[in-house]
Amino acid sequence: MNRTLCASMVSFAGLVTLQSALAQYQLQPLWSIAPGVRPYLTTGNTERGMAYNPATGHVLLVSRAGNPNPPTINILDGTTGADLGTLPYDAGLITGGTFPINLIGVADDGAIYGGNLTINQTTANFKLYRWANETANPTLVFDGAPAPGGTDGANNALRFGDTMDVRGAGSSTQILLGARGNGTASILTTSDGAAFTATLVTSDAVGASANNGPFGLGIAFGEGNTFWGKSSGGTPLRELSFDLATSSAVTIKSAGDPDVSNFIFNIGYDPATGLLAGIINNGTTSQEISLFDVSGPTPILLDTEAFPTANANVNGTGAIDFGGGKVFALDSNNGIVAYDIIPEPTEFVLLSLGLGALWFCRRRNG
User: Do 20 and 93 have their domain in common?
Assistant: First the structure.
């Protein structure tokens, strides 16, 4: 749909000055892979982790399709979606947890990190593995409780491995994890990029229930010492400021319906543009990705696009990552999509009405 916005202005002595509009963006389809097209993409809720590798331009996808031992970490071309093989895997090293590998993230230098899923950090350790690059063998870099001493106030479970984000490189690498059960997060830091230490982060955010924490399904680093979080059950999108010295995080921004759909679960954030993307998981009526400008006090919806299918995703799992001017989204049971993020086509038209009066119109597509 084309929309035209008009406003009037008056010129003096024939001089007209037009100020440029704020940058707007839209999603342009690049490629998509529906479940069933490839053996490692299914409708069986076996794909939950995905990340973009800025060092190679590749997309990495974790799959437990067919309950393989080991699972596969598939490499896809970020521009075409072509299948490029798999990461090396060590089944003797990568063990433990409900799923030995569930999520994946990539640091700025191309180092790859994969984590397991533990539904109770007191009885099963969270394990984090590192691949120096896409051809290197994995190493174990963390094995323990992500939130030492933390509880959810109900059953002391503190489930970790449903959300993860990675940033930095080498000794500045940080791994962000959100607990499923309450407003608890963990940030793993390192002095050498090879071994990590966990810091419990207790926030002022609360969830709707013990299994529906405020960032139990979506978490992403923001600028500086901030992160974003989202979950199901009507929980709002939150931006929080964290302090590792005090092991705390405070909400600085919160937005729910109608600005941000309650059905958005998984999120990703791009600090370079101030854009945030979220997967809308609305039963079997829609499975979509929405793009927001969150640089201001209230998120602004820029675009929404559909996944290839609309299968139910009852666990609300998935992943989003930005990179190379693109955004990639994995919606469990509904495949993977890739979009270019492009400036919205804009056309200004000046209409002279005489006597120095002008109308200018901005025509936009969408």
Answer: no
